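Amino Acid Chain and Its Fold in Token Form
===========================================
Structure side: the spatial fold of the chain, written down as a series of whole-number tokens.
Position: the record begins directly beneath this header, with no further notes in between.
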Amino acid sequence: MFTRSTFATVSLLLFATAAAAHTGEGINSGFASGFWHPILGWDHVVAMVAVGLWGAFLGMPALWVLPVVFPLVIAIGGALGVIGMPLPAVEMAIALSGVVLGLVIAFAARAPLWVAGVIVGAFAIFHGHAHGTELPEAFNAYGYAVGFVVGTGLLHLVGIALGFLTWSSLGKLAVRGIGGLIALVGGAFLLGYA
């Protein structure tokens, strides 16, 4: 069952487009708009999958702590965006999150839990702010917030599922390779190629 749901989620991600995540076109509720925003935007997908992947790579308790920290802090960032509090370089920070999180996975960085939590939380503020500022005016902010937290959580689960590959030596290499790909996608956003 878990494998089927993971496969279905990954399949949906493969057909995502970044532009669709930011328009809200065809979406008729705050929850749905919030839910699909992170799932349909590759800049968000890579970072959120990386959080789960890094947590799985670090093992317990990071396996569950990082994917809990990110949505909690993303909600705070979302609230800041909704009330209009400006943050500098939001899109750059979102792109950097893919680069940094991808590199820590690629280089098998074993950060202490508190350091990993600070890194993940710092990037979550910017992801949340982007969600909050792009809230369509016609939608309920609470439904939207719940939607993007749930969508974020599902992306973390994809990362955790991929992280189970670390149970073998070959799997660890595969996870590090995925980290490298995540860093490349983040770099493409950072340099304006995506």
Remarks:
- The longest helix spans residues 141-163.
- Confidence is low (pLDDT under 50) at residues 5-24.
- The chain has one domain: 29-190.
